[in-house]
Amino acid sequence: MQIHSHSLTVEVDGAGPAVLMVHGLGGTTNFYQAQEDALRDRFTVVRVDSAGAGRSPVVDDISIAHHATDLVAVLDELGIETAAVVGHSMGTLVVREMAARFPDRVSKMALLGAVRVPGADAQTAQRDRASVVRKEGTGGVAGGVVANALSQQTHDSQPVVSAFVRELVAGQDPEGYARNCEALAGAGDPGAVSADVPLLLITGDADKVGPPEASYELAQGHPDARVEILSGVGHWTALEAVAEVNELLTTFL
User: Residue 23: inside a domain, yes or no?
Assistant: First the structure.
């Protein structure tokens, strides 16, 4: 799909109210395949490879703000006025930015492995990761992502998930991945989620990247927020806990 001056890979399936699914750093539309399978009989499921990720080419301007603007343009192109949005990891910042700037386009929000706005140490870590990828390719960081972002339970009982996450990261365009690392490093605070938007937060008790505390912080003071902490699950929530995430999303949506 041609959006603004660049192209994005967009997948649309199903029929019914729109659900827009936004992957995180190292993800693609395939991160949500099991959720798309569960939802498409009742919803129009829209999945997008963000600029520089998956099958979407690298562009000059990659940032959280630009990703959010791209998503609104995708909805415009599809003739969708409003959608429930689902975001994972860095994608939770993107959908929060989208809801803050375009509040009339977001009807509900589900955040998987919600992350905080990076502090100084996290910013440095992401820029260092971008440097490694530019020197060594995505293979230079894929092993670390698998080792650190999945739970021990997932490593022990679901080796295919470990392999899939490694393939997702290793298959990224190195420059696109590096620029998305820098986009995460430069992320600003989108602010609190509007009280008018029903909010579901799902994360794992073994998630080191989007820890439960981050979800509870976002839910604090929100009148219609629900937090679900999944046992034995790390950061790649939708892959590590397919059945639980599918049930929670279906009920929420």
Answer: yes
